[in-house]
Amino acid sequence: MSTKNIEVIVPPREPHFVGDGFRVHNFIPSAYRLDMQRMDPFIMLDYNSRFYFPPSEKPKGVGVHPHRGFETVTIAYKGKVAHHDSSGGGGIIGEGDVQWMTAASGVLHKEYHEETFSQEGGEFQMVQLWVNLPAKFKMSPPKYQAIANQQMGEVELDNKNGKVEVIAGEYQGVKGPAFTFSPVSMFNVKLNQGGDASFDFPAAYNTALLVIDGEIEVNGESVVPVNHFVLFENKGEKFHIKSLAQSTVLVLSGEPLNEPIAAHGPFVMNTREELVQAFQDFQNGKFGHLED
Ligand code: MN
Predict the structure, then answer these.
(1) What's the pLDDT score for residue 103?
(2) Ligand 1 mean position, distance from CA 111 (Å)
(3) What is the whole-number distance in angstroms between the Cα of residue 101 and the centre of ligand 1?
(4) 5: CA distance to ligand 1 center in Å?
(5) Which of 27, 92, 156, 287 stands 20 to 30 A from 266 (CA)?
(6) How many whole angstroms from 190 Cα to the centroid of ligand 1?
(7) Model-level pTM?
(8) What is the pLDDT of residue 210?
């Protein structure tokens, strides 16, 4: 068992807007070395760092659009977001909640600020991840998992260090509620000042973290400020984090699918032919129907 060292600490890129409701820093697939293969099965990560949205009568967000071939996972840290999709999935998530939408064979969906949040305005902070599906599940039926904060696995750390919320995977024997199609770990680590925690993932798994709040030290040597992303090497298994201020850290690790990726816009398939098919099916109305 050896230490998993940092490969690179990635600062947030200049933010851009997705629709008019999500002001995001893209980390995957556009930041340093973080292409879709490098963090496979995590093929996209947009991070809306804490941002104040003023009151708005019309909810801000992203209108109806399709997805096929993967899952979209939205983790809410501040603010509230509503989702509706053409397979009937939908709901509102707020602080601490997660929505896990399996697009698979295809859905149309829309993502908006929740109405009351919109009218009142407020701080908004979210992560959206795209988790790739193994080839054999890309054309499975769509699925929607609403994961409320209280449903998550919860591990209290020793010595009042804080806690680990398990969204997917397992930490110290406690499992997360998310159903996944390949081995994926997704934890929210909430550390008190000076609190610490250790993690252990197979060397081959692609592993990273994002500092959502506060500031941490990794493996006793590297200081990682808020809104920075840490990519770990695919060597060694264990790493250690210590908080230098009260901190929230998103920890991600997954077994690479090691399958070809053919991606364009909202579709992520294995071959170019499948991508062409996705565009044709979308144009022919095979993704169902959803009102604007
Ligand atoms: Mn979407």
Answers:
(1) 96
(2) 7
(3) 9
(4) 33
(5) 92
(6) 27
(7) 0.97
(8) 98
Domain definitions of the chain by residue range:
6-254
Residues of the chain short of pLDDT 50, as ranges, are none
Residue 30 Cα to ligand 1 midpoint, Å, equals: 18
Instruction: Decide if domain 6-254 falls under CATH 2.60.120.10.
Output: yes
pLDDT digits (tens, 9 = 90+) for 161-217: 999 999 999 999 999 999 999 999 999 999 999 999 999 999 999 999 999 999 999
Q: What is the pLDDT of residue 89?
A: 85
**What is the CA(74)–ligand 1 centre distance, in A?**
10
pLDDT (0 to 100) of residue 55? 97
> 116 CA distance to ligand 1 centroid (A)?
21
Ligand 1 centroid vs 83 CA: distance in angstroms?
Answer: 9
pLDDT of residue 288: 86
The string of DSSP letters for the chain reads --B--EEEEEPPPPPEEETTTEEEEEEETTSTT--TTTTTTEEEEEEEEEEEEPP-SSPPEEEEEEEBSEEEEEEEEES-EEEEETTS-EEEE-TT-EEEEE-TT-EEEEEEE-HHHHHH-EEEEEEEEEEE--GGGTTSPPEEEEE-GGGSEEEEPGGG-EEEEEEESEETTEEPS---SS-EEEEEEEE-TT-EEEEE--TTSEEEEEEEEEEEEETTTEEE-TT-EEEEPSS-SEEEEEEEEEEEEEEEEE-------EEETTEEESSHHHHHHHHHHHHTTTT-----
